[in-house]
Amino acid sequence: MTLKDKTVVVLGGSSGIGLATAKAALAEGARVVVTGRTTARLRKAEAELGGGARTLALDVVDERGTEALFRGLDRVDHVFITAGMLVKDPRLAPDAAAVRPALDMRFWGAFYAAKYAAPRMTEGGSITFMSGTAAKRPIIGASVATASCSAVEGFARSLAVDLAPIRVNTIQPGFIDTPLLDDLLGARRAEVLSAVAQRIPARRIGRPEEVADAVLFLMKNDYVTGITLTIDGGGLLV
Hints:
single chain, alpha/beta, Rossmann fold, seven-stranded parallel sheet, about 15% strand
């Protein structure tokens, strides 16, 4: 149950939960590969990682790029894909092209990662997807983004059987203090998060490092597969 000298690939690891996971894996002695969509954010991540990780600009919906990434690695032990986005679609008013990216990024990004990583893995390897508590508590006015969370969880359970003995799991975070919340909440960020913190049992918002710790658990424990692990401070209970 160690990551020392293992190759860990974090798709969408240039900020937030992905970056925290990359840092935690490095601290355990893993060889880490981090991807992100923007070069500027990757350069910033490189500085935070102290040059200890290999970085690569990649959009997870780029199938050929994902294939090339994994083909270029000597070995792959663990993969974590964080990519996802919120697209608002109240009463399904937007056209399909406008909301399709919410499904493409989370589901097809996961599909490509699994398709091209699995053949490079040996027994003991793992793939971890990321959904969100929207899979259990839908986001009103964001039906497609909500559906993408449920889709990737079902996909993971199926792959846990189909790709065995490679393990496949899903991490399901609640409100976590990441840059994504800036985009989602804008000027109301502080107000909304304060209200959430007062309501949930943990009485605070989660930290990226806490989700990263759960991801590393899923990577290291060889007897865990096919599960969805919720990290939400008890938010789904209230």
